[in-house]
Amino acid sequence: MGLLLFYFINLHGLNIKIINNIIMRSYNLKEKETYMKNILIISSSPRKTGNSQMLCEQFKAGAEFTGHKLNLIQLVEKKIGFCRACDVCMQNGGICILKDDMYEILEQFKKADVLVLATPVYFYGVSAQMKTFIDRTYPIWQNLGYKEVYYIISAGLGEDIINRSLGDLDGFVEHFQRYEIRGRIYATNVMEAGIVRSLPVLQEAYQMGKSV
Ligand SMILES: Cc1cc2nc3c(=O)[nH]c(=O)nc-3n(C[C@H](O)[C@H](O)[C@H](O)COP(=O)(O)O)c2cc1C
């Protein structure tokens, strides 16, 4: 009888330990899950080593350091056609008739908690690649969800030019169900590709990524 009681107490203690362990593990997992964000960076310069792309890479490095999940998409490497305005997607539950890389990008977009939109200034607007991306979100435009948003913009001239060029990005982001613009990185007076390499804005991009 004494021996039985001894086994019971020990087994009981073991069970409590195991249950405690399971609770602690799921608690830690939950903490990690809420901490880790899905970050989608849309880089739209046609220059593969351009200023805005370099800033995207720094932002990515900073965010990765903190443990977030990153996906950096360079639109120039993707096959993305222009929106045809056929409106088929408005009648078939949001399926675009164009079969190209935008399907996968929209899947990534839906999953993203954080969206980074990067573009050079072209004639007081965004790049053609960025505008094409924005238009192709049309199949899901009524269901764009909540996103934390960051802008990365490079321009040959000064900050006033950038401020005059934000209409396309703001107009897109304002269609989200909920959003917060959390940061803006402006690389001004950078005409040639790669100039940002020697500028403080590079570090600024890294720090912003780290602070997500
Ligand atoms: C077609 C074209 C149009 C441009 N228009 C402007 C402009 O309106 N204002 C400006 O400040 N810079 C303008 N630029 C300069 C770019 O914004 C600048 O070179 C920028 O650094 C490019 O970014 P990236 O290196 O990320 O490609 C233009 C460049 C090109 C090729």
TrEMBL record:
Keyword tags: Flavoprotein, FMN
InterPro entries found in the cross-reference section: Flavoprotein-like_sf (IPR029039), FMN_Rdtase-like_dom (IPR005025), ISF_SsuE-like (IPR051796)
Protein name: NADPH-dependent FMN reductase-like domain-containing protein
Stored SUPFAM superfamilies: Flavoproteins (SSF52218)
Keyword Magnesium listed: no
Residue span(s) of domain NADPH-dependent FMN reductase-like: 38-143
Source taxon at top rank: Bacteria
Keyword Transferase: no
Pfam assignment, any one: FMN_red
GO molecular function: oxidoreductase activity
